[in-house]
Amino acid sequence: MPTNYIGIGLFILVGMGFTGATFAAAALIRPSNPNPIKLEPYECGVPGVGDARDRFHIRYYVLAMLYLVFDLEVVFLYPWAVQYDKLGLFGLMEMLVFVAILLIGYFYAWKKGALDWV
Amino acid sequence: MSVPLNYALALAAVLFVTGLAGVILRRNILIIFMSIELMLNATNLNLVAFSRYFGNVNGQIFVFFVLVVAAAEAAVGLAIIVSLVRHYKDSLNGDEFNLLKG
Amino acid sequence: MAVLPEVVVTVLAMLLLLLDAVLPEHRKSGLTWLALLGFVVAGAFNLYQWGSPAQSAYGGMVGADNFTVFFNTLFLATAILVVLMAPAYLRERALPFGEFYSLLSFAVLGMMFTAASTDLISLFVSIELMVIAVYILAGLARREKRSNEASLKYFLLGAFASAILVYGMSWLYGITGQTNLAKIAGVLKATSLDNPLLLMTIALLAVGVGFKVALVPFHAWTPDAYEGAPTPATAFMSVGPKAAAFAALLRIFISAMGPAQPDYSLLFAILAVLTMTLANVVAIQQNNIKRMLAYSSIAHSGYILVGLAAAQPGAGSDQVAGIPALMFYLFVYTFMTLGAFAIVAYVQAGQVTGESFDDYRALGRRAPMTAIAMTLFMLSLTGVPPLAGFFGKAYLILAAVHSGMAWLAVAMAVNSAISAYYYLRVVVVMYMSDTTERVPLYRSPFIHSMLAVASLATFFVGVFADPFLRFAQGATLGF
């Protein structure tokens, strides 16, 4: 029984070892030239403001909620896609109705200004 | 060789009871909410384990629906919490929402 | 098309949502007419299906038979009455019309599918569709602290209950290997019932649904949620989701777990007595009429549960069987409770807070017809003959006696007597006290017609109880 887990154990060891080795190699090879600009999180991007542990603006929640709902509805597309050949035209129609209903929700959110970044 | 059914059920039961205890003992509404999600995920584990045990897909279909319902619930629940926190000046302590009592 | 009424309500809900997004603000009161039209059309399609052979749809997930026709009638009647009572209240408080009606339609859709579900999966999804819409309805007055708080409490306890319920469902699936209710019943019939896991499953499911129908000791959310929610939403919550939760209770415990009836009958009998007694005792102490009605609604859940405790699966449409009595009582309860809440909404709409008993002082003189209607609802809720509430209780008591639970019948009769105290208190305040206040009541043809329908139903379902009882009996033939 425990022999079944030898493979997993090896996999974990090799995985960790490989990560450690690459980091070590990178630390040895790369030039080290720290300066204030270099140390910014996004060297070529917009300068960071504040701390990531700060409170987020409430607007993010609205977008996050919309994302959450629409993202999970996609779950239902997978079984349909897997069985597409068997379900045929009827399945396609059902799925179009499903997506149309989702679009109504999207349209409502849009019209109500949930997507505006005021 | 696969994990016996009982192991999965025991893990699900532990998760479920953890969530149950969280709902009853914690006062922060976000943590209560997360505990409820934990209970739902314990259910999902149960369903998947049974589904595999019986060799039919009903349980897995059930999991799809539980996931989506949980997402819808989360969206509505977070909206309610955000709306409430605006009124109560940044408190998430469930004991402070006591306007209604008999 | 077995699910035509449901399709109509689906289209209605989405149409209302779209129109709410595109119509200018001043034209939105027209949505009331659209909502009424939609529910009436769905109701007509629904009644047309009465007596036609049972069908199933969506791969056996949903069924259509007399049982669903009965409950759909109940739900659509609830929806129509709520739509009629809402405009006065919504306009006074500047609450959004379109969203109210749309959420109402989605909740009604969830209720209809709950009663129609023949599979654990569809049952769960339908219950959730219903309650998620109702969480939002409770919090619709989002500028009011109390409405937000009501919504939050309802949401947290509702989601908690759903989690327990679905865990119970997962065990039911685990015990039987099936999610189809009829197949579950088949497996349970063939196996031994003294299985500790089955008892645990019964407990989980009872707790889950017990929260939804507000049984003691799972009722803590009810008074808060009912008090804080906008009154038309409260009226809806106290009737619609409760009736749907009872439909779910019947689907789970009779359709699927009927063979295990000896295991749970006593459990429900005890819960019923606990619920009605505690709720009645607490209701006496309330000074806010919405809280009083909330406890009254909990007490009525206890009465209705007597029907399930006294159920004898297989007895079907027997004259004194528990299930028809339960369904008949739900029918009666719908009209008298909606009526009582409509009067609260009506009194509130005239700018007074309208929630304390003092606001009802001398209502008999200020608004004679309204006071008569309120008296009718209160007497019917008490169970005074010949009103509908009396016959509802009488059938439940008969069913309890018939199934050998005389103590349950006695408990119910004693509780009805206790409840007279707080119901009649409203009547006393309306007729036997004076006030200097001269606040005019809000006038709306909608709410007047709603009150007329609810009063007539409360009166005539009592006087001519027989056809309605036969309606309930005809609906249980499937069991």
Query: Would you count the extended β strands of chain A for me?
Result: 0
List the quaternary state of the chains.
Answer: heterotrimer
Summarize the main sheet of chain C: 2 strands, antiparallel
Mean pLDDT of chain C: 88
Query: Strand arrangement, largest sheet of chain C?
Result: 1-2
Question: Taking all residues together, what is the mean pLDDT of chain A?
Answer: 82
The first-level CATH class of chain A is given as Mainly Alpha
In the CATH hierarchy, the architecture of chain A is Up-down Bundle
Stated plainly, the CATH topology of chain A is called: Methane Monooxygenase Hydroxylase, Chain G, domain 1
If helices are DSSP runs of H or I spanning 4 or more residues, what is the number of helices of chain C? 19
Number of domains of chain A: 1
**Which structural class is indicated by helix and strand composition of chain A?**
mainly alpha
Rg estimate of chain C, integer Å: 21 Å
Label the overall shape of chain C: globular
User: How would you describe the shape of chain A?
Assistant: flat
Q: Give me the number of helical elements of chain A.
A: 4
- Major sheet of chain A: none
**Order of secondary-structure elements of chain A:** HHHH
Description:
The complex is a heterotrimer of chains A (118), B (102) and C (479). Chain A contains four helices and no strands. Chain A has one domain (2-111): Methane Monooxygenase Hydroxylase, Chain G, domain 1, CATH 1.20.58. With 118 residues, chain A is mostly helical. Chain B is mainly alpha-helical. Chain B has a single domain, classed as Helix Hairpins, CATH 1.10.287. In chain B, helix 2 packs antiparallel against helix 3. Chain B is elongated, with a radius of gyration of 17 Å. With 479 residues, chain C is mainly alpha-helical. Chain C is 75% helix and 1% strand. Chain C has helices spanning 4-22, 31-48, 66-93, 97-116, 120-138, 145-176, 181-190, 196-212, 221-228, 231-256, 261-284, 289-309, 322-349, 363-366, 368-382, 388-402, 406-432, 445-463, 465-475, and strands at residues 55-57, 62-64. In chain C, helix 6 (145-176) packs antiparallel against helix 8 (196-212) and helix 15 (368-382) runs parallel beside helix 18 (445-463). Chains in contact: A-B, A-C, B-C.
